[in-house]
Design goal:
- Helix content is 47%, strand content 20%.
- With 524 residues, the chain is of the alpha/beta class.
- The strands form four sheets. It has a six-stranded mixed sheet with strand order 12-14-15-17-16-18. The chain has a five-stranded parallel sheet with strand order 3-2-1-4-5, with helices on both faces. The protein has a five-stranded antiparallel sheet with strand order 7-6-10-9-8, with helices on both faces.
- Helix 2 (18-27) runs parallel beside helix 4 and helix 15 runs antiparallel to helix 17 (476-486).
- The longest helix has 71 residues, at 244-314.
- The two termini are 92 Å apart.
Length: 524
Amino acid sequence: MSDFISSIVHIALVGGGRLCKELLEKTTFDYTQEEVYAPIIAVADPDPQAPGMLLAEEQGLLTFTDYHQLYDPRYSIHLIILLTPDEDIFQDILNSRPSRIRIMSFSVFEVFWKAIDIEERKLRKRNKEIETIINGIQDFIMVITPDMDIIEVNDAYLKKMGYAREKVIGSKCHEIYQHMVYPCDDVNFDCPLNEVIRNKRPCRQIRTRVDPSGEPLHIEVSVYPIWEKDGKISKFIHISRDITEQKLEEEEITRRLEHMVEERTRQLKETHDKLLHQDKMSSLGKLSASVVHEINNPIAGILNLTMLIKRMVNEKPDKQDQNDKQFLHYLNLMETETRRITRIVNNLLSFSRDSKMEFTEVDIHRLIEKTLFLNANLLKLNGVKVEKHFYPELPKIIGSEDQLQQVFMNIISNATETIETLGSGVLSIKTNYLSKTKRVAVSFQDTGIAIPRENVSKIFEPFFTTKKVGKGVGLGLSVAYGIIRDHNGSIYVKPKEGKGNTFTIKLPLKQPSVNLAQNGGFHG
């Protein structure tokens, strides 16, 4: 420490005018902190009210009205700088000063001072440019000391956070950022400045903060240390960027991707269900093709014999006794059950690839009316009221009238059975023309018991039925599905609890080809 003190050059100024005041403002330092080894310690001027003398007193420097007092060895003056152009004073000091004191004339000082002033103006201009650039950057920039004091901040941070510069400058960073009186030493909070000190390298973190309005902000924080010669950190450059919008965009993109994945998964599941359904239909078709003809022949024989016996009995009405009437009753039951077997076999035949549909021009309204006429007695017996809402001048379609009639028959039959359990109800039939897709839509809405939602996806599967034993084997809707598919159309059901079921069929006006077995679709 003694070597450091002995190397200090004490300076005294003679002349306390404007130039003295300017020099004191710019060059008086705390040499123990700023490494300045030539401090100004005294000012001499005959006018104690000169601006330089007044400022020197404020700064605690020595002031004298007689510059000869500077020669006193107690003050250890090493250099006198003349701040007055008075040549007589220069000559007097030059002749009277002790040999240990050197002197710098006003003319020499003026040369250096002007050169310093030029460089200062350049530096000031450069600083202004840098300040403008920094304030123009939208990132938040702070300069923080190792003691966590904020010594500089740019306008972007002040504007975004709604702070006044006076509140931020001089405050501790944890007071501004975390609103805490004490430093961020909590183990659950990894302060980026502490991370820089610990790892001795810059760091980057993502922080969530709250703006003055209470809204969350996502901030990307980067801290860069400025090192001193001795390896210590002199300052931290704290740069933070508001990435809230970017974060929200990323979250939105993630949400969209998740939605797309969910939608794609749903589509794949639907496609898988369709393929599985088609595979079942194909298997059933192969089964039907192999056995249907073998079953049909004996059934036809039994039915013909039954009808023959009935005719023989009916030909002798006058000779019939009670046993004959009972016998005739049994024959009627046999005929009914045999015809039911025939219908089941015909349904199986629909799955066989041996049969081909003949496509002609079909009037949907006329076909619905025909189907309703054939089922009029069934509808009346079960208390079903039919309401028709037909699209005016509905275009005709190309299709198989017989096959489509079977579809309508099966749907109307099912609707009647669901209403039957309630005693009465309404079957509403509505048609529409979908001009954009050039399709005809037919919907059958009943007020019967709704299909349970867990059964909706299985309702068109072969042999799936919720009917009582003896009421059906679960082929009607499967047959309907296959027929609509072969028409390049779609069929789906939408149950509504307490309000029955709605079956909707959509059919194209024209068929691209006769062989359409792989087209169409079902939407459960």
